[in-house]
Amino acid sequence: MILLAGDIGGTKTTVGLFDGGRRDPARDAPATIVRRTYPSQDFDGLSPLLRRFLDEVRGDGAIAADATIATACFGVAGPAIENRVETPNLPWVVDGRALAGELAVPYVELINDLVATAEGIDALTGDELRTLNPGQPQPGPRRARALVAAGTGLGLALLMPGPQGWTVFPSEGGHADYAPGDDDEIALLRFLRARYPGHVSAERVASGMAIPSLYEFACAHHPEWPQPDDVRAALAADRDRATPLITRHAIDESCRLSALAMRLFVRSYGAVAGNLALTAFATGGVFVGGGVAPKILPLLERGAFLDGFARKGRFEAFLRDIPVAVILNGDAALLGASRRVWTDPPLAARGGAAS
After folding, report:
1. Domain 125-328, CATH number (from 3.40.50.2000, 3.60.20.10, 3.90.1150.10, 3.40.367.20)
2. Which of 74, 96, 167, 318 could form a disulfide with 83 if both were Cys (CB 3.0 to 4.6 A apart)?
């Protein structure tokens, strides 16, 4: 039984085929047949991207030309409502029913990308998690978990224990209000309100797309500090190209502006994670996913993340006891989407397209 799964993000989309009859010997997930990654912006929608993928893998002999796909699941960066997603960071509308018909797949399930990542947590191996805070794990029954993930945007999810395992609840909390915590952050809020007068969300500060804005704030806040020529040129040509330069300068401490921008990013990212931990009473642990965290791991480990995480007044000691770990496997959401259809056989048996 061939399963099709994917992780659809604002920057890149990773899709794979999995053998539903074989377990990956290294993890609790179906065995991977083939996986590939594509720039999301190169396609007008998910359907043409998947047609490209399936044409390529059939042409390469990864699967037989006449092989059929039993069922499919995609984690999509956006709210999944009635098996349909309008992606906030891509001009796509993804509909499970329509997609099933176009691909001749009996059933397609769409889930939020953070739900997919959450579904993949228990498939991760020990070396695919990096501990930021060991905390004080609570003994006894499983306890609530929280997941926060900065990629192009900012995603959140809650994992609640139940008799059949974890129930994952998606969240669009990344679009909740940004809450500054000190004078620099108050100045940042004023700066961002001038750009986004209707609403400044947490995603405007704690996501990949926010990093150039944070750097530009640092420049406005400290005009006396010198700018590196490579960042200046990248911002003038293509703001997205500036992000890896800013993060690199912050990691090697070669630019004060970059260091300030990323300190604001990391501390705000930690504050969002701490807010979610309080909301969910996540004594079972907080997981930091998404594509940004592994790239800036040295910055996360320098303390600003945990400072923002625990900076909650009377609940600081409570938060210091919560374990926090970074997900290093960039395919966590892909694994989760594959496990979703692998461990839930009724999905494959429903027949017809999703409604």
Report:
1. 3.40.367.20
2. 96
Rounded to a whole number of angstroms, the distance between the first and last alpha carbons of the chain is 23
Nearest to 204, CA basis, from 174, 245, 234, 235: 174
Q: Could you tell me the two tokens for 260?
A: 């300030």
Nearest CA to 202 out of 144, 307, 274, 129 is that of 274
For 119-140, write each residue's pLDDT tens digit. 999 999 999 999 999 999 877 7
Contact 120, 319 (CB under 8 A): no
Output the CA torsion 224→228→232→235 (10° steps): -110
* Contact between 74 and 94 (Cβ < 8 Å): yes
Rounded CA-CA distance 172/157 in Å is 8
Kindly tell me if the per-residue pLDDT of 210 is higher than 80.
Answer: yes
Distances (CA, A) of 344 to 68, 72, 83, 192, 341: 19, 12, 16, 44, 5
CB 26 within 8 A of CB 125: yes
Diameter over CA atoms, the chain: 65
CB within 8 Å of 333: residues ≥ 6 apart? 7, 14, 75, 113, 114, 116, 117, 120, 289
Rg of the chain over all Cα atoms, to the nearest angstrom: 21
> What is the distance of C-alpha 61 from the center of its chain?
31
Tell me how far CA of residue 124 lies from CA of 90, 113, 169, 177, 341, in angstroms.
Answer: 28, 16, 20, 32, 17
Q: Which residue in 181, 218, 178, 174 sits closest to 199, CA to CA? A: 178
The mean predicted confidence, pLDDT, of the chain is 93
Domain 2-119+331-349 matching CATH 3.40.50.410: the answer reads no
